[in-house]
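retry 2 of 3: previous attempt timed out while embedding 3-methyl-2-oxobutanoic acid. Reduced batch size to 1 and resubmitted. Inputs unchanged:
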Amino acid sequence: MSVHKEIKKVTTHVVSDMKQRGEKISMITAYDYSMGTIVDTAGIDVILVGDSAANVMAGYETTLPITLDQMIYHAASVVRAVKRALVVVDLPFGTYQGNSHEALASAIRVMKETEADAIKLEGGEEVIESIRRILTAGIPVMGHLGLTPQSIHKFGTYTVRAKEEAEAQKLINDAKLLEEAGCFALVLEKIPADLATKVAKEISIPVIGIGAGSGVDGQVLVLHDMLGINNGFSPRFLRRYLNLFTEMTGAVGRYIDDVKNGDFPNENEQY
Ligand code: KIV
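retry 2 succeeded.
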């Protein structure tokens, strides 16, 4: 039974509890105050201030260029809007892989300057020292395995990950390592559904999927993709709930016409 509407503030404990009770966790991205208000009002459980902001907000090809200062600006804007959802912020590329002290300093800046609830970072064994050190400061960490967009130049494509046995086994090992280290949840991106289901069954922390099938504990989508603001991106896993690109260009087009033909403003729209 879903009790999510009665919860006043979603914490990491609430999210863990949802897995125990078998209630699916809803998660979506947001990068600004207005969208944060909309998704929180709609009742989303978790808001991810994702480094996908680099793509959808800034127009970069990859997530690599976004900086810690820019992520902090986006996250603080979202946090100001949110009353109920748990807000998780991505540590951007280059702010946690170098060494664990740098990782902790980055995570502390996010928590201090945005007042978000948790951070997320990509990778398993390779970044486990960083994860452990961040956790020692009492900062909740969400892991991210499978397709990890910050490593795009290592893999060269955004295709489905862990189809081969060796990569699948590494992913399972990494998921267990993240659980043991103390991560409160894990995102699995673009991996075979059977593998994601197996991971969700084998670890006790919530597994939130994107392109990872229905056998996990929750789902996450990029807001601009599911609203159809981004009309050039149509992976198989994406369900579009609106076609806002068409709606919005149409509305702006009508405004342009009204300005050009003198219809706007009319008598009631002036002083
Ligand atoms: O940055 C992001 O939006 C993400 C999601 C795709 C999980 O990491």
